[in-house]
């Protein structure tokens, strides 16, 4: 529904402006700096989004390309090893529910490997 700009089954569930607010970076430069500093210390807990993006209303937003995913990808990682993102440019949604916890680097590596593999199988 978010990839379809708020529409589902021909019915509008969210306005286009609401979707834009959710899926674009809303952080001020000061907030972005504080967020970047925080994520540098816990990067192993992230599949990369923590170091490659900003924050919309309720989800992370990729603001520059640093690895597999293009700018504009949005979603979030959970503390129990879950990850869910949507990619408007490839019309792709990925969800991984490991429930392993993010207390060790291994869980973060599994999330990163999931996204790397998902993007590698796209056949243009």
Evaluate the radius of gyration: 15 Å
Domain module count: 1
* Count of extended strands: 7
Order of helices and strands: EEHHEEEEEH
Strand composition percent: 15-25%
Mean of the pLDDT scores?
85
How helix-rich are the residues, as a percent range?
25-40%
The shape is globular
Oligomer class: single chain
Give the N-terminus to C-terminus distance in angstroms: 23 Å
Largest sheet: 5 strands, antiparallel
Question: Could you characterize what this model shows?
Answer:
With 124 residues, the chain is α+β, with helices and mostly antiparallel strands. The chain has one domain (7-120). 30% of the residues lie in helices and 21% in strands. It has three helices and seven strands. It has helices spanning 16-23, 29-41, 105-120, and strands spanning 7-8, 11-12, 53-55, 60-62, 74-77, 82-87, 92-97. Strands 3-4-5-6-7 form a five-stranded antiparallel β-sheet, with helices on one face. Strands 1-2 form a two-stranded antiparallel sheet.
What's the topology here?
Blueprint: E1 7-8, E2 11-12, H1 16-23, H2 29-41, E3 53-55, E4 60-62, E5 74-77, E6 82-87, E7 92-97, H3 105-120
Antiparallel strand pairs: 1-2, 3-4, 4-5, 5-6, 6-7
Concise summary:
By secondary structure, the protein is α+β, with helices and mostly antiparallel strands.
Q: Keywords for this structure?
A:
124 residues, alpha+beta, two-stranded antiparallel ribbon, 21% strand, globular
């Amino acid at each position: 529904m978010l990839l379809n700009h708020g529409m589902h089954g021909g019915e509008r569930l969210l306005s286009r402006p609401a979707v834009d607010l959710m899926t674009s970076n809303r952080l001020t430069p000061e907030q972005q700096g504080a967020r970047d500093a925080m994520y540098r210390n816990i990067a192993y807990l992230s599949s990369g989004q923590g170091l490659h993006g900003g924050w919309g209303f309720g989800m992370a937003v990729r603001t520059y390309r640093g690895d597999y995913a293009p700018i504009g990808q949005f979603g979030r990682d959970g503390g129990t090893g879950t990850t869910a993102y949507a990619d408007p440019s490839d019309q792709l949604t990925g969800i991984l529910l490991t429930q392993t916890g993010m207390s060790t680097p291994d869980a973060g590596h599994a999330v990163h490997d999931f996204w790397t593999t998902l993007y590698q199988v796209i056949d243009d």
